[in-house]
Amino acid sequence: MWATLEAQAKEAGHGGMDFIMMYDFIDAIRNKKPAPMDCYDAAAWSAISGLSEMSIARGGGVVDFPDFTRGQWIHRKPHFAV
Question: How far apart are CA 18 and CA 34, in angstroms?
């Protein structure tokens, strides 16, 4: 996907990944495919800032990353974008 969309994504935010993620999400809606990201992915991505703040407040200490899926991540099938 990156090789195909690199030119279009070049000027988008976060090195083009914002464009790629939105493109993949819209493609899933249009073609009735599974979304490339679910609520668990969103929670994990969103947790990074808060966990980083906690680590900094602890002088760079390790902070456990929460398992929002309660162990069910092991059974998830990977999403392969085309």
Answer: 19
Which residues, 6 or more positions from 22, have their beta carbon under 8 angstroms from its beta carbon? none
Rounded CA separation 22/43 (Å) = 17
Instruction: Indicate the burial class of 69 (C-beta count within 10 angstroms; 0-12, 13-18, 19 or more).
Output: middle
List, for residues 19-36, the tens digit of each pLDDT value. 888 888 899 999 998 888
- Residue 82 neighbours by CB under 8 Å, 6+ apart: 1
What pLDDT, in 10s, does the model give residues 38-71? 888 889 989 999 999 999 999 999 999 999 999 9
